[in-house]
TrEMBL record:
Taxonomy of the source species: Eukaryota, Fungi, Dikarya, Ascomycota, Saccharomycotina
Taxonomic source organism: Maudiozyma exigua
GO molecular function: kinase activity
Record's protein name: EIF2 kinase Gcn2p negative regulator
Cellular component, GO annotation: cytoplasm
Keywords annotated in UniProt: Cytoplasm, Kinase, Repressor, Stress response, Transferase, Translation regulation
Pfam family, one: RWD
Record PANTHER family: IMPACT-RELATED (PTHR16301), PROTEIN IMPACT (PTHR16301:SF25)
GO terms (BP aspect): GCN2-mediated signaling; regulation of translational initiation
Limits of the RWD domain: 10-112
Amino acid sequence: MDTNHEDLLDEISAIEAIYPENLERKVEDCSIVILKVPQHEYMKIQVSFPPEYPSTLPPRLLDVSISPDKESTWDIHYLKDLFQEVLDSVFHPGIVCIFDFLTELDAVLYEDDSTSDVTATEQDTEELIPIDPFDGWVGSDPITDRGSTFMAFATHVTSEEDAFTKLDKLKTDSKMRKASHIMSAWRLKVTNTNGQQINYQDSDDDGESAAGSRMLHLITIMDIWGVMVIVARWFGGAHIGPDRFKHINSTAREAVLRAGFSSTDKK
């Protein structure tokens, strides 16, 4: 099995773990899949993957369909063009992109909903604007091993309150609520009213024994501050032993680096 095909199978396994009810159909080799759009399950997309994906070629959007009761709300031709544009924008050679594609679809579909003909006061309209749970977070690629999926997210934080607020918002996302564990670690420096600098650092295993402390050790040896990193695990039923810590550290490090942190940060 070549590397491209292995990457594709891993990606589809991760999507199936994160969105277990949204993967409607796939051919045996996963070269074509049908997915319900998360948060907009009345929409379905059919996507094909060329043999050169993800090394050189992007996926191709074959079809978009809508349930009959929603057909009057959307222009199907507009959606096809929009979805293909989003798919093209998230693809980077060598990197799987379907998770990012689905995340971006939720954002653009909400923006489009906001332009619909709905009578509401300005205050009512503001209340309808959802809070994006992933705002400010940068994610790693998911890792799937024996049915369990691991994915990390990192964000800049300025205080403990800021860190916990962002974490609480992240946990409101539907797929995050389905995670078996959401492990976290954070480090930050705060200057109090007397001009003294106080260092804060802590971690939370969330039921995955010793995971949080390992993540804290990771960001400590990376010598970075002003950071919170979390790793979500969707348990697949099979115990994978110490390998889980390898996946936790690997995804956490990737998310931290993608978020722009480096060993030179002294925040």
